[in-house]
Structure formats: structure tokens, C-alpha cells
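Z., the sequence and structure:
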Amino acid sequence: MPKTLIPAQRHRMIREYLEIHQIVRSSVLSEMLGASEATIRRDLEELERLGVVERAYGGAILSQRMPLEPAYSHSALAHPEEKRWIGRAAAAMVKDGDTVLLNSGTTTTEVLRALRARTDLSNLILVTNNITLACDARETPFEVILLGGSFRPRAVSTVGRFANDQLRQFCAGLCFIGVDGISLKYGCTTPSSVEAEIAQTMVDRTRGPVVIVADHSKWGVVSNFEIAALEQVHTLVVDGGLSPESRAELKARSVHVVLAGPESGGNGHDYPES
């Protein structure tokens, strides 16, 4: 690689690399572009200023925006197999007698479907604003409490003051939160302010682990409203499409990563300690 690349050329090549790999180390860019790591650092600072990347320790992650909320029916078509794996791995964390909060979304619905297959949860209580999830809970041996509130057809959920007031009456041992984006800098986000408010209340009313359930496509995505900072997240349940570098970045921020997939026997496995 010639050493005469101008900044605009380097920036274009960094973008192209990240569009394929999503994450990159500065040392890799330095070798690929024939530039010093100090030069690469300045390039990444400029690309972060432009909103193209988020700098991480020793490199950068592609930053993607999600300004608009996808309809539930559209979300259900995206990565369905990965969501089923995630649902099974998340459901394995639940114990009989737990009170569990779940927000709206197609991935939390898969958590319920996996719980429904278990026969040892007769004393479980699920609290949710996810109407699809509640409808899928027919003939389950455990209790499902659907929050009242304003109906949102786009997410097939309930939101608003009534739903939040009800939520504040619970003190849950565990919550599963579906998100539209996960970012090292901006945490967990969603395009809808009212859905973010419900999810924030669920996080606040959970005395135990806050578990994010999200497939790998949510990594590096930033939307309009924060649900939780990474410091508030105990565990991320994700499929194996999340790169080892990204898992290491999350581990460095004390987020426990559970990988879900067929190699885990359907119950997920912990990201190994280094």
C-alpha cells in the first residue's frame, strides 16, 4: 500500500472496511493503509465527529443510525432463527418463583415461547407491555400480567402513564429487554420515546440482572432514545454473529455475554474468559 494516500482516501477505505467487518483495530488500519497509528487515530477522530464510527479501545466500530421504528411484522422477518436461539438461551436463566419483566419486541416474544415449552415454572410471574407475547401465553402454567395503557399498533404494545404507573408497583428479580441498537458510546437505544420510557422503568424496577436480548445486527446501531447505559446492563444474550472483538469490548465494560446458537445445545454458553 503506497504511503501517499490523502485523508479522504484513507477515510473512504476505512468506511469500506468497516461496512464489511463492522469493527477494526488501529494496528490493522495502520498496516493496510501504510500510515502511522497516530495518523489513523486522527482519521478515526474525524470519522467519529462525522458520525461514521465510534472509537473503541484500540480501534473503532461502524456506527449505524436507526431513526425510524420498524413495524412489528417487519421486525419478525429479520433474523428469526437467531431470535429463537436467543429466546431459548434467555429462558434458561429463569427459575420457578421469579418475577420477570419483558418489554415489547419480537425477541422478547421468543423468550416467552421458550418459557412456554418448560414444565417447571408453575410459580413464575411475567409482567409485560408486549401484547403479542401475552396472546402467545395462552395455556401456560404461569401467570402473565399485561400492562394497561395506550395501544401502539406499530409495536403491538401498551405504553404511557398507566403502563408506567403499574410497572412501578413491581420489584422484579430479572428483566429481559429487547432493543433496536447497542453502542459502546450510547448504550441501548430505540426509535420510540414511549417504548424507551417503558423499558427504562423496567430496568429501574429490576433488583437483579438486566438482560438485553438482541441479535448481532443491533450491534453498532444508534437510535433516538436511550433505554439503558452499558453500565446498567448485566448480560447480553446474542447469537454467534457478534464478532470476538465486539464481545471483548463488551467484556471490558463488565457486560456478561452469553452466545446463543445450535452449538450451545439451545441454552447458550458464556463467552469464555481470556
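DSSP finds ten helices and 18 strands in the chain. The domain at 72-270 is CATH 3.40.50.10470 (Rossmann fold).

Let me know what you think.
H.
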